Amino acid sequence: MKCFFSSSLDPMAFRWSLGNHENFALQIADATNFYITEKNRNDIKNGSILRLTTSPSVQLHERIQSSSMDAKLESLKDLANASRDITFAQEFINLDVHCSFGDLLSFTLTAFVELMDHGIVSWDTFSVAFIKKIASYVNKSAMDTAVLQRSLAILESMVLNSQDLYHKVAQEITIGQLIPHLQGTDQDIQTYTIAVINALFLKAPEEKRQEMAHILAQKQLRSIILSNVIRSPTPINDEMAHQLYVLQVLTFNLLEDRMMTKMDPQDQAQRDIIFELRRIAFDVECDPNNSGSIEKRKSMYTRDYKKLGFINHVNPAVDFTQIPPGMLALDNMLYFARHHQDAYIRIVLENSSREDKHECPFGRSSIELTKMLCEILKVGELPSENCHDFHPMFFTHDRSFEEFFCISIQLLNKTWKEMRATSEDFNKVMQVVREQIMRALTLKPNSLDQFKSRLQNLSYTEILKIRQSERMNQEDFQSRPILELREKIQPEIMELIKQQRLNRLCDGTCFRKISSRRRQDKFWYCRLSPNHKVLHYGDLEESPQGEVPHDSLQDKLPVADIKAVITGKDCPHMKEKGALKQNKEVLELAFSVLYESDEYLNFIAPDKHEYCVWTDGLNALLGKEMTSDYTKSDMDTLLSMEMKLRLLDLENIQIPEAPPPIPKEPSNYDFVYDCN
């Protein structure tokens, strides 16, 4: 081999009478013990100590050919360690040595793994017999841990490095034979097992991936990984986290085909899915006999498709021709309608009863949400080599993506209401929902229920707070001068909010009268007098269009007589009406005004915004603190704007932490002019 220092070793061999210089080599005398070659000679640092030793080829010949089993064992131990050196590896491959397995199997496989990592020879050179032999070690129920680990590593490398070997390995190894290795407690074995499954999944032809996914589901791979790996008392190391991430990505990538499939508006089977969505949502309104004229049925379909929130009311199939998300969006909608039927019907009917501009279009929302979820989970992209970002909650359900969608579509509807959004705000709502989902995922919930719970805490108001807090931190709003300025401005802002609340009370609000059995179509109106001294209220025959004059409201309540404002379950009308007491939504909108002789004026606000306006306004009239979420949100928004306006002239100027020093007093005050 000509990779050693011929020019350097010749004089050494002659001087010390060593004989043929090809039998010797130079080695770095440190922990690595790497051999010196023409390729790495320039990497030798000044002062490095070199060792003259026998060449790798001589060592291999002497040790491997030994008749002693102990000598062979020691040789293979050294070989396993030395195989990391490409020089040693090259010599071993050139010798074409076939080591005996038996007791030496572990060291032999270790050496083989290290040797192949150098990429000196192609994986395609190995025979079917060799593959069968390695596969046999994996298929055995009882096998030495080290041998099993290295066998799994070899199989993974074979599959990843050669398409031809993939087919051969796939014939020898089945998912059923790999599953038992996941049920043990050795995390390294579990990691290599999942790595082999991932490799088989990754290299499988597209037409076989769905089939393989079906087999994985039959073998309950997900639940086995959840029980034995994710919920194991052993902490998950980085390599295991990476393999779980890869499995997660490959599983979600199975959705790519549906995501990139356009709906065929002429395909009756696909159109039947849309009919099914309509049937589930409007079951009571459906006409089973299809009676009436064609025009009447078309009109009825158009009306229902509009209620379902499709963009194209006449032919909603056109909505699913956009890719992504294609047919995947329709799949999600059907899953939601069938498996969460009550929530589906509630969302559709709730939005169809709102004003046109305030309805949250279920169809359009579902399509855009599906597209967003695919972007978040990077459906269709290959897994990153260095990422460990797996989510335990996706291993808790066989239809995790569909359940993920079901939770998210309900979140979207909730956020839409919290933002009091209109159709013009659609993109803004989607941005907020994306932020809510991303922030909840960052917390790595262990289950879908936990994910849902985290989202409950990330309301639109909370998102506004987080955004504001982040902006303040980014703009260095924590310095002492800035904080002092904020404290000075806050009372002014609070007074502004107070005036706004009182002005809203002066405008008045229409409230519904609600009985314990059902909602009645009766209304009453309440408004504050312009001088803020009297509440005027009275019954109405129908919902008013605009403001109701004070003169038409028969009853009055002097503000001076009001003793307290009571909210929620403490309200007397919530205690009296059992049915309402159980309705959490109504409970959160209830408040009462307590006045003389323990009399009450009971309210149920039409929505959360009006609830906050009225409770804030009434507390302001009583000289109490306004504590609603809307007050906090308004305070943050207005304070931020005011701070930015006042600091506009100081942009790019460093504000000192301490005020400038006060100069010394002058020696005399002769310059002072007495105006008197």
What does this structure look like?
- This protein has 676 residues and is of the alpha+beta class.
- It has four domains: 1-54, no CATH class; 57-257, Leucine-rich Repeat Variant (Alpha Horseshoe), CATH 1.25.10.10; 259-458, no CATH class; 502-633, Roll (PH-domain like).
- Helix content is 54%, strand content 8%.
- The chain is built from 29 helices and nine strands.
- The strands form three sheets. A four-stranded antiparallel β-sheet has the order 3-4-5-6. Strands 7-8-9 form a three-stranded antiparallel β-sheet.
- Helix 7 (145-161) crosses helix 8 (163-172) and helix 17 crosses helix 20 (400-418).
- The longest helix has 28 residues, at 480-507.
- The chain is flat, with a radius of gyration of 38 Å.
- The chain starts with 5 loop residues before the first helix and ends in a 30-residue tail after the last helix.
- The model is unreliable at 95-103, 516-520 and 578-582 (pLDDT under 50).
In short:
The chain is α+β, with helices and mostly antiparallel strands and 676 residues long.
How are the elements arranged and paired?
Layout (H helix, E strand, L loop, with lengths): L5 H10 L8 E5 L21 E5 L1 H9 L4 H14 L3 H10 L9 H13 L10 H12 L5 H17 L1 H10 L2 H8 L4 H17 L2 H13 L2 H10 L7 H15 L3 H4 L8 H14 L12 H14 L19 H13 L1 H12 L9 H16 L22 H19 L7 H17 L5 H10 L2 H15 L5 H28 L1 E6 L4 E10 L5 E7 L14 E4 L5 E4 L4 H5 L1 H5 L1 H4 L2 E6 L3 E6 L3 H14 L7 H18 L30
Name the features:
676 residues, alpha+beta, Leucine-rich Repeat Variant, 4 domains, 4-stranded antiparallel β-sheet, 3-stranded antiparallel β-sheet, flat
